[in-house]
Amino acid sequence: MTGQTHPASHGRLRARTTAGKLALGTLAVLVLSLAAALGASAHRSAGTINAAVIAPFSGPAANLGKFISLSCYAAAEQVNGAGGVLGNQLGCTTVDDTGDPADAVPAVARALATSNISFASGLETNTAAVTVPLMNDAKVPFFTAAGLPAFDKTADQYFWRITPSDAQNGAAYAVWAKLKKYKSAAIVLQSNAGNDTAGPGIIRALKSLGIKITIKIDIPGEAASYASVVSRVKAKNPAVIITATDPQTAATFFSQYKQLNNGKVPPLITATASLTPDFFDAMTKVLGASFVTSNISLVGYHVAPSSAAFAAYKAGLASSSHVSPSDAKVVSGIGVIAGLYDGDIIMALAMTAANSSKGSDFNKFIPKVTTAGKGKVVVHTYAAGLAALKAKKQIDYVGTGGQIHFNQYHNSAGNFSATAFNTDGSPRLLSVFGAGLIANALK
Amino acid sequence: MGIFVQTLGFGIAAGAVISLGAVGFTVQFGISNVLNITYGAFMTLAAFLGYVLLNRGLDVWVVLVAVGVVIAIASAVFNRVFLSPLRGRGAGFVNLIIGTVAAAIILQGVIVIAAGPSAVTYGQQYGKTVSGAGLVFSLAQLIIISITVALMFGLHLLLTRTKVGRAMRATSTNRTVARACGIRTERIIDLTWLLTGFLCGAAGVALAVTTVTFDFSIGSTFLIYMIAASVLGGIGQPYGAMIGGLVVGITSQLGAAYWSPAYQDVVAFCILIAMLLIRPRGLFVAAGVNRRNLSAT
Amino acid sequence: MTGWEYYAVVLLVDFGTFLIAAWGLNLEFGVAGVPNLAYIFLVAAGAYTYAITTLGPSSGNGGFQHYVIGAHLPYPVAILCAAAVSAVLGALVGITGLKRLRPDYQAMALLVVSITATTLVSAKTSLVNGSAGLALIPNPLHSIEPSKRGWAYVGMVFLICLLVFAVLRRFTDGPFGRLLRAMRDDEEAALAIGKNVVALRIAVQAVGGAMAGVSGALLAGFLGGWSPGAWLFIETMALLTAIIVGGIGNNWGVVLGTAIVPTLIVQGVQFLPDISSNPELIPQLGWIILGCLTIGFLFFRPAGVIPETGVRRRHRVIAEPAELAEQPADGAKNGASMSNWLIAPRGDADRRLADEREDILVVDDIHRDFGGVRAVDGATFSVQRGSITGLIGPNGAGKSTALGIVSGFVRAGRGTVRFDGADVTRAPNYRRARRGLVRTFQLSREFATLSTLENLVVAAPRARSESALGVLRGRRYWGAEEREITQRARRLLALFQMEDKAAERAGNLSGGQKRMLEVMRGVMTQPSLLLLDEPTAGLSPRLTQRLGDACLALREEGLSILLVEHELETVDRLCDTVIVMVQGKVFARGSMADLRTRKEVQEAYLVG
């Protein structure tokens, strides 16, 4: 074999003749894309207040982005149905952060440049570390879906979170296991950003609640075989398995569990983020419908389906042209998404109260429109809030998850619930438990 | 001890799946002399095609063959319109790899646009389990193991005992000399790509069925295992791929059982890197079907 | 700062950091030919190092993330640490080049290194916080007020780009770049002229690694976060695409490629109107365009938009013809043969001493099997100092293998090789070449992208510009020596009557000229024993004559030559002693006239 022929040794003869053409071509591409860029920014219509949905819309986590964006569309329906914000329509701009921090920063910067963004939602776990400071520096208020404990005590002024941190989420699994009187639990988590931070919460809470941890094991996602892990887990005979994985990993893992354990799989506790058709379908195919509807409970941030705020949220989902009925059904069961809807409504109310769409003006009105107080009008919808504000009254927005109490770090502790699947994959509420139980378990 | 034997069984089952994919890969690499990264993307394509056809209610064996034929033709065309001309323009080994990576990126991108980024699930395909002597296998796994063994023998015989096989090896060793000896090298090369493309397609379907659920990354993920298996067994050797696949499967399952599953791939990959540094011709070079100079020159 | 301004800042910082990384990878792959598919791992290592050296202890901030070190170092120190760590890792990764694998196997090994590193870092949460990655990484300019920080960062990144470029040029241009390109063009030939290819490659990967480290540190400092999602293997492909599009081996081409690929295309597609409801279309389109660009350039313009600097332009840097007019001041050398300057001068005392010492080459009972075939089977012979010794024999007699064993390119199964009084049986080939035992190849192995003159200059032994540290000291350190070497090379060209081809790309030379170049390059290393493997094969009678004259002239200077040859006429003319090999053994030995009279030799030669 001779050494590799190096590319530099080819094409040089033609270099002089074609170099000019290529340079010209490159220039043309440059000019065209610049023009396209300017064009894209020019056609933004005036009279719109833009809410950015910063989330992964491509790649393996694309579904998450889609679901998060639905909350914004629902909120926009509600806001625009009541006449808009400050005389403007509320619009949703999706920003694809791809789940990669290095790509997320240019994507968010581009959005800040090309769309006049008044507030944002999303900013989930994979990229929050870089998008949160960026938005905070740009003085754009935002509600995050990221559970990173980094933000449990943040000093960022434009940061707001009414959904739980990962540590609380982890503890919630344990509390539910305690409520169900399981004596032992195995923890099987796919190693990923959210689970790495939830894991310690689960362990701490299980220990303090006196549930025996038979095994805690992190598995890589999407492997072809989990047989060895399965045999390790089943050897410990856990009463329940606390697990959080993507649907693909879950399907492979539990189909092998079933195969190696004579068709038996212990009850599963997993995250409400798994209330998706992907997860439901995969697990139904692998474990059977009866197992999925009776033995899987999904634990997470609670929203009250019977509340007036939730009714408005559902109405928003139903009337938005961006939301398909099947998606609406799925998403209405995931608490975190409803929490982001509340966030969008709160933003619109705060803008109205501040009479400004500038983040630095209305940011401090966010707690003002959500804190309970004497003489305040309790509202559950944007329309009601708008009316009260117009009547020069102070308001207290009580959202889909109930009363909001922001602490000094702009976090609000909500309730948790356990849900199960109905036979059609829709959620069925099993139980609600308060933030107090979680806090105790984490002590 | 019981756990060890059991883990061994898991390793064999996992390894058989890897071997199945690696048998075609190693023969293609060995004969075409191109490290074809696109092989993984073709497998992904096969997995999705198989999924669509199986959902139409076709028999699994029919699907296996049908998808195999499609990928076989696609592979041969891929070589004809892409790799072969690229090599003809003097592209070196590394540029060929870069070219196949680029092609894999394009193909994967198209698959994601068409099929979406989410995983799809076949459902429970495992069938009954068969156990004995501490080992547990599912019917599907046993079928895969038998197919792999049969393929391995078949390919080995094809390459060593038949005229076509010898022509393939001759072509891979020195195309010019082979042509001078009256071998119609163009046709032999097409045949190689058709054959290995078929194996790629069939393996793609089989992989997807046995792992129950998959997404667009299944091919690229498996490609690494297949490369590891092929290098361990020696490039171009069908039974080498089989043994290499088993080594990869068993070490990763042992890693998961005795260390941490998070590192199960790391063990296999480290073995691969070590092999490349110490014995790049593979474990079984002496009886090599295809002996080649792997040094930089 | 407006949104547009901030977007511009982000793009410019991205451009600058990407550029530093692309330059580094271009040094490794474009100039030195190392297919480092693990490059993005080195960028990541820099980012992580910067993060864990600038962040305080892991327990700070409520202990929400776990990592090692947490040293709270000053920012410049942290960036240097990042460069150092990536340089060390780069050198370690370079170990994959120890076993001189075929480039695609090497690429494969490096690809697996990259993937393994991602898996390990994601799985080991206590190291750098696993897949969640690190947050709150301090911005090196955080003391500057936020409104000015963005542009200040751009300024800093571009300043560092300039600094990096200043250093990089010393490696990619001039004598060191020439050496790297020689290694890239033909590694085997580089070894034959005594270049320690492995050490060179590791040095290059350390330098490239350091650049990756700087790039990663600057990126992490700007982003404020870093996680495994940011350095998947595919990112190396983006860098490679930029290099291939812009111009492989050309620093300015890389600048252009960096402007086109990540900035224009990856960002540009985001501005395309969203014509379909498929959210995957636009992001995937970016990758598909990247793939198509790569393939298009590989096919139609593998040298890129701005190809590597041409031979002629490089020549302007090597030496001005004016300098060649100067004659050596040393009068003693005048009047002697032209070759006076060509090989290492040996004093009379030295020569007398030489006569008392043993033969320059003593080969004892060497063996070599190739898969059961005995190529060399117990050959024993020696070469006298200052002689031209011929090695002849029928095809398959093991002559070339014997030459390979002597030069260290073929491992001896048994037996010893003594050169210049020392046992070199176990010495690596390039070390033998450095000692003065230099070979040429049967099939010419020129450094195709270098000029004829460069092919010679690069072969000069122990040049100051050959070490990474030496070349960093600049032209003042190596310039004078380079001029001397160039003069010697010109003289050699004159001896072989090839002055007019000095600036010709070696790849474009005719077969005969390549053969001459091969011999000249061997001589350029100042050997004491030159092993010529069928140097006249395919030469015209005129060139054969010319080569013979040159050999005789060189022998006058004390050079010993071992010549494997088929053309008995040439052997007759040049050789003092002739060794006949048959079936892997030495069959006879003597002067050509002597051998002609021996019947058994004639028979063996004709029959064998």
Keywords:
heterotrimer, A: about 450 residues, Rossmann fold, disordered N terminus, B: about 300 residues, mainly alpha, ABC transporter involved in vitamin B12 uptake, BtuC, two-stranded antiparallel sheet, two-stranded antiparallel ribbon
Low-confidence stretches of chain B: 286-297
Shape of chain A: globular
Please report the two chains with the greatest interface, counting residues with C-beta closer than 8 angstroms to the partner's C-beta.
Answer: A-C, 72 and 80 residues
The major pleated sheet of chain A works out as: 7 strands, mixed
Q: Radius of gyration of chain B over alpha carbons?
A: 19 Å
What is the terminal separation of chain A in angstroms?
A: 68 Å
Report the oligomer.
heterotrimer
The strand order across the widest sheet of chain B is: 1-4
Our count of helices of chain A gives 17
What is the percent of helical residues of chain B? over 70%
Derived structural class of chain B: mainly alpha
CATH-derived architecture of the largest domain in chain A: 3-Layer(aba) Sandwich
The overall average pLDDT of chain B, rounded, is 84
How many strands, which pairing sense, and closed or not: the largest β-sheet of chain B? 2 strands, antiparallel
Element pattern of chain B in H and E: HHHHEEEHHHHEHHH
The largest beta-sheet of chain A arranges its strands as 7-6-8-9-10-13-14
Number of strands of chain A: 14
Q: Could you say what the CATH topology of chain B is called?
A: ABC transporter involved in vitamin B12 uptake, BtuC
Overall 3D shape of chain B:
globular
The first-level CATH class name of the largest domain in chain A: Alpha Beta
Describe the structure.
Chain A has 443 residues and is α/β, with parallel strands linked by helices. Chain A folds into 2 domains: 48-164 and 332-397, 3-Layer(aba) Sandwich (Rossmann fold); 166-302 and 415-441, Response regulator (Rossmann fold). Chain A has 17 helices and 14 strands. In chain A, the strands form 3 sheets. A 7-stranded mixed beta sheet of chain A has the order 7-6-8-9-10-13-14, with helices on both faces. A 5-stranded parallel beta sheet of chain A has the order 2-1-3-4-5, with helices on both faces. In chain A, a hairpin with a 5-residue loop joins strand 13 and strand 14. In chain A, helix 2 packs across helix 13 and helix 13 (335-354) packs parallel to helix 16 (382-390). Chain A is globular and about 65 Å long. Chain B is mainly α and 297 residues long. Chain B has a single domain, classed as ABC transporter involved in vitamin B12 uptake, BtuC (Orthogonal Bundle). Helices cover 74% and strands 4% of the residues of chain B. Chain B is built from 11 helices and 4 strands. In chain B, strands 1-4 form a two-stranded antiparallel sheet. The longest helix of chain B has 31 residues, at 2-32. Chain B is globular, with a radius of gyration of 19 Å. Residues 286-297 of chain B have low confidence and may be disordered. With 608 residues, chain C is α/β, with parallel strands linked by helices. Chain C has 3 domains: 3-232, no CATH class; 241-309, no CATH class; 346-452 and 507-607, Rossmann fold (3-Layer(aba) Sandwich), CATH 3.40.50. Chain C contains 25 helices and 10 strands. Chain C has helices at 3-31, 39-54, 75-93, 103-123, 125-128, 146-172, 174-185, 187-192, 197-223, 234-246, 251-268, 281-300, 311-318, 321-325, 348-356, 399-407, 429-435, 452-457, 468-472, 475-495, 511-524, 541-556, 568-574, 592-596, 599-607; strands at 361-370, 373-383, 388-392, 414-419, 422-423, 437-439, 529-533, 560-564, 577-582, 585-590. The longest helix of chain C has 29 residues, at 3-31. Chain C is elongated, with a radius of gyration of 29 Å. Classes of the chains: A alpha/beta (443), B mainly alpha (297), C alpha/beta (608). Chains in contact: A-B, A-C, B-C.
